[in-house]
Amino acid sequence: ISRAIVTKSKSESKKHTNSQINYLFPHEIVLLLNKISVICVICGKQKIQQKTISLLATKYLNMKEFELVAKTYYGLEEILAKELTELGANNVTIGRRAVSFTGDKALMYKANLHLRTAIRILKPILKFKASDADMVYDKVKAFDWSKFMTVKTTFAIDATVNSESFRHSKFVAYRVKDAIVDQFMERENRRPNVRINNPDLFINVHISHDECTLSLDSSGESLHKRGYRNSQNEAPISEALAAGMLLMAGWNGETDFVDPMCGSGTFLIEAALIALNIPPCIYRKSFAFEKWND
Fold it and tell me: Which residue has the higher pLDDT, 265 or 37?
């Protein structure tokens, strides 16, 4: 089936109208196509499948676009923006240590799997202005958290603060936690539990001056943790940073690559992944979005 679909998409995509595509790709096959796309990437057929997958997923699964933010290291923003554009992201905007963009669920999944210079993919769900912790508590408590979790959902909160009004990121995290717990206690007389390690839901809080953004972290562990290491030397370079340096240097796998002071071999491994067109996070055991209720 996969060979037939790929062959059809290659030879007849320019000939068929939307109605004919509707005939060739019934709803039941779309889920299979998403799995096939990963295989095609590994086989070097990424350019063939990316547009086809995006078109079909949007048409048949009614995937709506929403805002997303890819976090990265300072200096790699332009490289990450280029990666996102090539992956099919829309409205790509470069920020400080981050690149915002829009896409659907399929793109969010692919971003976690394919981006070499991103360290996490965030989905903003709540934005507001606040000048103190009590205002943060009130806004968070008023938000309907039942759309994303239940009393059985474990969660963890990570807060980043850059503001004169907020000086302690941990205190902000505590207030957000209190607001979520109190909402469930008032509604159901039960509360969800906080779990630092491997929670069901990762919540990211970012405060810049008086602008507060709460996001769901779709990645979980940082994406620089590729999943291919069993052990490492002391103070190794981040895999995402190494990949970014290679991409900035123009590495494409067409020349020899020598690293005489390789240490943990990070540059060599990342260079090989780029040369072979292998998604950097394909060896990871899990992503946070796999536990989401949707």
Answer: 265
Residue 22 has pLDDT above 90, yes or no: no
Q: E-strand spans in the chain?
A: 66-71, 90-94, 98-103, 120-129, 155-162, 201-208, 211-217
Tracing tokens 């923003």 back to the chain, one arrives at 77
Indicate the pTM of the whole model. Answer: 0.78
Written as one letter, the residue type at 267 is F
Q: What is the dihedral of CA 280, 283, 285, 286, to 10 degrees?
A: 20
Give the strand pairing for 120-129 and 90-94: unpaired
Question: What DSSP assignment string belongs to 92-114?
Answer: EEE-SSEEEEEE-HHHHHHHHHH
- How far is the C-alpha of 126 from the C-alpha of 152, rounded, in Å? 22
Neighbours of 284 (CB within 10 A): 18
Q: What are phi and psi of 201, to 5 degrees?
A: -140, 125
